[in-house]
Amino acid sequence: MPDAPLLTLTIQDTLTQANPLIAYILLFTLAAIPFIEILLVIPPAITLGMDPLLVTIIAFTGNTLTLLLAITLKTHLTQRWANTPPNKRWQRAQQLWTKHGLGALAIASPLATGTHLAALIALLLGSTRQHVTAWMIASLAAWSITLTLLTLTGLHTLT
Predict the structure, then answer these.
(1) Are 48 and 80 in contact (CB under 8 A)?
(2) Closest CA to 40 of 128, 130, 143, 142
(3) How much is the pLDDT for 1?
(4) Nearest to 23 by CA among 4, 3, 50, 42
(5) What pLDDT score was predicted for residue 136?
(6) Predicted confidence (pLDDT) per residue in 124-153, tens digit
(7) CA distance 50 to 151
């Protein structure tokens, strides 16, 4: 992901220049965009002085809502992608699935493929909606809390 630092700087600049209400709306919107993921939203927002608890809840909610939408629209999305050749993210997710199963795919998804794509791949490979939803939400919650705690620990150590 060579563009990640540039994207993070852009998110930081956007959040810094916005008034507080708009900043939280932007945070929600950015977290909801597939492939941006909470990894690129939570640390910059907390570093910029936004409330860590609100940041965690809002980013988790934004990402979860679009994840649930993707799971719900699975049939439409898979028909649309039926003739598309697999890319590196797809292959990485399929390898995780084959070797370790749904749990590993869900836990690794923010880093490896993105939660939305991982959920769709898990559904295509035979997991039920209920299992995929539960694993992905649990993974997002764990990642959100972990990112918040690591960011706060880093900030505390630096000051």
Answers:
(1) no
(2) 143
(3) 44
(4) 50
(5) 96
(6) 888 889 999 999 999 999 999 999 999 999
(7) 12
